[in-house]
Amino acid sequence: MRPQAGRNGLATAAVVLGITGLFTSFVFVGGLLGAIGVVLGVVGLRATRRTGVGRGRALTGVMTSILAITVSVLFAFFMAWYANKTQECYRPDSFQEYVQCVRGHLAGN
Question: Alpha-carbon dihedral of residues 13, 19, 21, 23, nearest 10 degrees?
């Protein structure tokens, strides 16, 4: 069965996963969605060779998916850095003490 003229479902799925991955990168789901989006985008690019349809969407899907992976990785590194930098602050008696401790550690005191 041949795809209908003017449609490339893999390219569309890659774009949707890439954009969704960008919005969910801060909860680490975006990296996984981005990885799936890259695979679908590459397969969609290969399909454009046969059908000639959806190249722009496939490229957009690959790029947004790679961006989602990048943002997820950067956010994970930031969270690890923050946790390491403020690990002494995790047992405060109050939220106000926690905030003061974090400010002191981030300021280098």
Answer: -150
- 89 burial (CB, 10 Å; 0-12 / 13-18 / 19+) is middle
d(CA 14, CA 45): 10
How far apart are alpha carbons 10 and 61 in whole angstroms?
A: 9
Residues 44, 54: contact at Cβ < 8 Å?
Answer: yes
CA 41 to the chain's CA centroid: 15
Give pLDDT tens digits for 80-102.
998 888 888 877 678 888 888 88
Instruction: Sort 94 into a burial class: Cβ within 10 Å, 0-12 / 13-18 / 19+.
Output: exposed
Q: How far apart are the C-alpha atoms of 40 and 46, rounded to whole Å?
A: 10
Q: Whole-model pTM?
A: 0.80
Contact 62, 38 (CB under 8 A): yes
Cα 45 to Cα 15: distance, rounded to the nearest angstrom: 12
